[in-house]
Amino acid sequence: MKTAVIGSTGYGGVELIRLIEGHPHLELAMLVSTSQAGERLSRAYPHLQHLEYTFQELDVERISQETELVFLATPPGVSVNLTPQLRARGKMVIDLSGDFRLEDGRSYEAWYNRKAAPDRWLEEAVYGLSEWFAEEIRKADLIANPGCYPTATLLGLLPLLRAKMIDHRALIIDAKSGVTGAGRKVDQSLLFCEVNENLRPYKVDGHQHIPEIEQIAGRFCSADVKVRFVPHLVPMNRGILVTLYTPMLHKYAMTEVLSVYKEAYESAPFVRIVERGWPATKAVQGSNFCDIGVHVDERTGWITVLSAIDNLMKGAAGQAIQNANVRMGWPVETGLKGLPLVP
Ligand SMILES: NC(=O)C1=CN([C@@H]2O[C@H](COP(=O)(O)OP(=O)(O)OC[C@H]3O[C@@H](n4cnc5c(N)ncnc54)[C@H](OP(=O)(O)O)[C@@H]3O)[C@@H](O)[C@H]2O)C=CC1
Ligand SMILES: CC(=O)N[C@@H](CCC(=O)OP(=O)(O)O)C(=O)O
Fold it and tell me: Where in or outside the cell is it found (predicted)?
């Protein structure tokens, strides 16, 4: 299947290139760059010097003629304009940005401070958290790939919410991300000396992934969910670790809680329930795994859920390929069997 990657000079884009090159059914037919059209891929990424690709202009007509599936790995606001043009030409779109994740355009405009896509296209979009929405994804031509923090958070949270074991009014999410999560753009606050030897919270007063987490969590408890979410930047390249704290509605034994997770993910090859030790970013680095660990605190009646992913893999490009596999009816692990890079 011929694919185009728009935003192919970015971190999400180059991870898509790596995965598509290793995928038996996907072909990289067009790498699009608005800033480096005409340049070789190896100029942006010398480690890919053996690949013969040249970046192409962003030409919707040509992309539509030469490819069937388009991955958009572009900053917020780009897909709002491009996706309707691609969909109008019958192309299948998997969008890595936040432009089509929120059902309510007003919510997108409030949290992203940008104009939302027309309702028609927001209604068409399917939320691409493959473990929970595979049935919808199989029929979708516009897939909104989840955000990196929501992926780690929701995979840890949904089994307990669905089982009605926790209080949805008290969800505290402490999240930490490596610096590739912020993309490859030049930004003074992301310089080595600003990030290294530092651990800093950001967007404490409101992160754009809050409404996304609340929207999906709300579907699993038929309530207006509000979460307390604070992200932190960690001096490492890749990885997200989410620690979620919530009170249990009754006293549950650890074995009961674990069985809820095992049942929820029994046919989900990318979710690993960690029973010895705790999830850590290094254990998933470079892979599409989400590692989940739980701890029941009998003393306080609270439960702690830990969830680790590689933000560029399960948090972005890996999940996008997983969605393509689900959509096309290919085995879900196709092209995604790479093991973590430890050490
Ligand atoms: N990094 C991560 O861990 C995750 C990222 N995401 C989301 O995925 C998307 C891509 O992220 P990431 O790869 O990190 O970002 P980067 O900043 O690394 O790359 C984005 C790319 O988009 C291209 N671009 C910029 N402006 C435009 C435009 N107007 N039209 C077309 N292309 C444009 C640029 O390439 P060029 O200049 O060559 O056109 C750029 O390389 C974002 O929406 C991000 O929020 C989601 C989950 C995780
Ligand atoms: C470390 C870091 O800065 N991470 C980014 C991740 C968000 C992202 O990728 O943006 P979307 O809203 O398109 O998902 C952030 O917190 O804004």
Answer: Cytoplasm
